[in-house]
From TrEMBL:
Function noted in UniProt: Deubiquitinating enzyme that removes conjugated ubiquitin from specific proteins to regulate different cellular processes.
Domain UBA: 643-684, 718-758
EC number: 3.4.19.12
GO BP of this protein: autophagy; positive regulation of proteasomal protein catabolic process; protein deubiquitination; proteolysis
SMART domains: UBA, ZnF_UBP
The UBP-type domain, residue ranges: 187-295
Protein name, per record: Ubiquitin carboxyl-terminal hydrolase
Main location per the UniProt record: cytoplasm
Stored CDD domains: Peptidase_C19B, UBA1_UBP13, UBA2_UBP5
Residues that bind Zn(2+): C211, C214, C231, H244
């Protein structure tokens, strides 16, 4: 056993005194009640600190709490000890040394302590034949920092030995995120290799499905033998149905079916009626293609190297990644990359752009001590803690250090390699922000725009006090709808966070070249010759801006002046301009063959943008407003699903929302058009069942859904009384408890943290009592509610970042980010950060502008 000096490299630390077995047991006795053996379901973190990106590879190693199994770097372990009183930690350290050379010059294989870290991730940057690993584990007892080397079976109590072995052999808490692991849990169907498929001419459309026997539109299964679309049973996949798919199997004996709505380029839910379990179908792409479903024909990877459609798009990959140019690596604060987890480039690109914004830097990294000190007992499950951790990792420069020439001499002298961490891994951050989200928690590629909105929603819900950095994106949109028959108008306002620009393909300036290229391409394909060099449509930005400002037809418009459906047009203008304007180019759509299509276009995006002419003007002289009358409420028939406007569904799906969520949005808004359904999505997108198949509600469900669409709020806004009672029993004032619960969405643990983190909070007793009385009396306050917070100003902007996408659809390919820093453009391509030589501003997908002060 050694004193603190050995652990922290203090002089004289290596000569610690060896204690007898009885001394070790006596030392551990007071701490035995706090040492736990990991149970099934416990997350054991031994690869990454909860507050930083320290790991066993770091100079100070990693400390794993033997009670909570959370891990902490040297800088943060004292905080956890002071906060919790937990004294016993396992210290993990990985040493990397140059291999000993044999007589012939080759490296001798050597790996000591190979049984310690059976599941510890290795650093790919150090996976070399020239180096070997030596893993070390110790028990450390705080506050005196006594050390007990492991393994130590003879001297340690049995419980401690079992706990240490369990920690060291535990699996990664992120194993479910790792690509392809879930597939190994499903068996391959014995019917997949020789499945009979009838040549009956059946072709399945991309939407509008219904059961062939009962007209149900949810929980539908496509039989892979004859193409029948039939409903499942209630007990399977937690969705309703009448069991017609199973009846069909009993009648015909066709064994395999795939669930519609789950098909992606990575696979689908396949069920074997004969084997009575979910299965894998290795030939699913071929079996689906038999019925005209071409989705699985694309086998895209994160870096796009296996995309079947890559040949005609090779120039896109080269141009966006600036291939062929010698890019100079960048190091230091603000130049830290993010390692690719196999499906995380969409997240990395968005977060690099987010943390280049000063408001986000101040809100999180600027408040780091307070956020970390007041973090909950499990900081891995706290949004603000993980945002601060990520921001500090990207901005501190601690994980982006240039190689030093003297390092080679140091390696020779000390015979030890000190690794330079090349980027940080966002594994813990991704695990938290994607939790309970059906898409982001999967291993599939995602839409960066959809993740941006998801992140903004999380920032809104977890804002720190009154500070909300996402305010910089928020703006008001004025929508003017005009009845074409009566010419009367209605003005409404809604909140938005990005500007979606349509691609004006008809305005291409090189139409002749495009026609000639298409003819040459088809001829080359027919004759199996090499394809010609890609010709990309050149679209003026002004044409896209013009298309945005032009009136749109409103589908199924209900005119309150006519009390009936009529033709209507809608125009959108900015009622306020945000401090930071995010512009999305709507490059993606769906083809009739189910394949998401991408407009591969070049748009001359300006460095300086002026949209002041799009400022809303409100009701104009001579305009007459439509009567303020709501359309009649149509209660759906429970016995049969009402028809769903599939055109509205597809409009929403083109924005990147899950198909089932789009169908629910259109259904619950009574087929009143994509715009109203979009508002429903924004309100409900964080609900756990957001992307679950549509289940028809009863009368009460329809009424409540309709209320939420039009912004109605519940009358009872009071936190649960039993939680209020728990907090007040701890000695806190009732109004404090109510305020804290409201600020934390009625989460008890977070509410207590909120109270401790707001010691300066002055309780407004009159306000709280009034709100209580109103809630208890079921009264809605007559005071006008405060409007959304916006930072209005000039509509003149300058480009400072853009995110580009390579590949054929948002479901495959790769994202990278370019950011302008210190007067020059920098390319962020996963963990690689380099000075940009030719930033491809014309090929971006999302553009970030900041307002120019007037």
């Amino acid at each position: 056993m050694q004193r603190r000096g050995a652990l922290f490299g203090m002089p004289g630390g290596s000569g610690g005194r060896k204690m007898a077995a009885g001394d070790i047991g006596e030392l551990l006795v007071p701490h035995m009640p706090t040492i736990r053996v990991p149970r099934s379901g416990d997350r054991v973190y031994k690869n990454e600190c909860a507050f930083s990106y320290d790991s066993p590879n770091s100079e100070g190693g990693l400390y794993v709490c033997m009670n909570t199994f959370l891990a902490f770097g040297r800088e943060h372990v004292e905080r956890h000890f002071r906060k919790t009183g937990q004294s016993v930690y396992m210290h993990l350290k990985r040493h990397v040394r140059e291999k000993v050379r044999g007589a012939s010059g080759g490296a001798l294989p050597k790996r000591r302590n190979s049984k310690i870290f059976l599941d510890l991730d290795t650093d790919d940057d150090l996976n070399s034949d020239d180096y070997e690993y030596e893993d070390e584990a110790k028990l450390v007892i705080f506050p005196d920092h006594y050390e007990i080397a492991l393994p130590n079976i003879e001297e340690l109590p049995a419980l401690v030995t079992i706990a240490c072995d369990a920690v060291l052999s535990s699996k990664s808490p992120y194993r479910k995120q790792d690509p392809d692991t879930w597939e190994n849990e499903l068996p391959v169907s014995k019917y997949a290799n020789n499945l009979t498929q009838l040549d009956n001419g059946v072709r399945i459309p991309p939407s509008g499905w219904k059961c062939a026997r009962c007209d149900l539109r949810e929980n539908l299964w496509l039989n892979l033998t004859d193409g029948s679309v039939l409903c499942g049973k209630w007990f399977f996949d937690s969705s309703g149905g009448n069991g017609h798919a199973l009846e069909h199997y009993r009648d015909m004996g066709y064994p395999l079916a795939v669930k519609l709505g789950t098909i992606t380029p990575d696979g689908a839910d396949v069920y074997s009626f004969q084997e009575e379990e979910p299965v894998l179908d290795p030939h699913l792409a071929k079996h689906l293609a038999h019925f005209g479903i071409d989705m699985l024909h694309m086998h895209g990877t994160e870096n796009g190297l296996q995309d079947n459609d890559i040949k005609p798009r090779v120039s896109e990959w080269e141009v966006i990644q600036e291939s062929g140019t010698k890019l100079k690596p960048m190091y230091g604060p603000g130049y830290t990359g993010l390692k690719n987890l196999g499906n995380s480039c969409y997240l990395s690109s968005v977060m690099q752009a987010i943390f280049s914004i000063p408001e986000f830097q101040r809100a999180y990294v600027g408040n780091l001590p307070r956020i970390f000190d007041y973090s909950p007992l499990d900081p891995t499950q706290d949004f603000n803690t993980q945002m601060t951790k990520l921001g500090h990792g990207l901005l501190s420069g601690q994980y982006s250090k240039p190689p030093v020439k003297s390092e080679l001499i140091e390696q020779v002298m000390k015979e030890e390699h000190k690794p330079q961490q090349n980027g940080i891994s966002p594994r813990m951050f991704k695990a938290f922000v994607s939790k309970s989200h059906p898409e982001f928690s999967s291993n599939r590629q995602q839409d960066a725009q959809e993740f941006f909105l998801h992140l903004v929603n999380l920032v809104e819900r977890n804002r720190i006090g009154s500070e909300n950095p996402s305010d910089v994106f928020r703006f008001l949109v004025e929508e003017r709808i005009q009845c074409c028959q009566t010419r009367k108008v209605r003005y409404t306002e809604r909140v938005d966070y990005l500007m979606q620009l349509p691609v004006a393909m008809e305005a291409a300036t090189n139409k002749d070249e495009l026609i000639a290229y298409e003819l040459t391409r088809r001829e080359a394909e027919a004759n199996r010759r090499p394809l010609p060099e890609l010709v990309r449509a050149k679209i003026p930005f002004s044409a896209c801006l013009q298309a945005f400002s032009e009136p749109d037809n409103v589908d199924d418009f209900w005119s309150s002046a006519l009390q009936a459906k009529s033709a209507g047009v809608k125009t959108s203008r900015f009622a306020s301009f945000p401090e930071y304007l995010v512009v999305q180019i709507k490059k993606f759509t769906f083809g009739l063959d189910w394949v998401p299509k991408k407009f591969d276009v070049s748009i001359d995006m300006p460095d300086l943008l002026d949209i002041n002419h799009l400022r809303a003007r409100g009701l104009q002289p001579g305009e007459e407003e439509l009567p303020d009358i709501s359309p009649p409420i149509v209660i759906p028939d429970d016995s049969k699903a009402s028809d769903i406007d599939e055109s509205s569904v597809m409009q929403l799906a083109e924005m990147g929302f899950p198909l089932e969520a789009c169908r629910k949005a259109v259904y619950f808004t009574g087929n009143m058009g994509a715009e109203v359904a979009f508002n429903w999505i924004i309100v409900h997108m964080e609900e756990p069942d957001f992307a679950e198949p549509l289940t028809m509600p009863g009368y009460g469900g329809a009424a409540s859904a309709g209320a939420s669409v039009f912004g109605a709020t519940g009358l009872d806004n009071q936190p649960p009384e039993e939680i209020v009672a728990i907090i007040t029993s701890m000695g806190f004032q009732r109004n404090q408890a109510i305020q804290a619960l409201r600020a934390t969405n009625n989460n008890l643990e977070r509410a207590l943290d909120w109270i401790f983190s707001h010691p300066e909070f002055e309780e407004d007793s009159d306000f709280v009592i009034e709100m209580e009385n109103n809630a208890n009396a079921n009264i809605i306050s007559e005071a006008k509610p405060e409007g959304p917070r916006v930072k209005d100003g000039s509509g003149t902007y300058e480009l400072f970042a853009f995110i580009s996408h390579m590949g054929t659809s948002t479901m495959s390919g790769h994202y990278i980010c370019h950011i302008k820093k210190e007067g020059r453009w920098v390319i962020y391509n996963d963990h690689k950060v380099c000075a940009s030589e030719r930033p491809p501003k014309d090929l971006g997908y999302m553009y970030f502008y900041h307002r120019i002060p007037s």
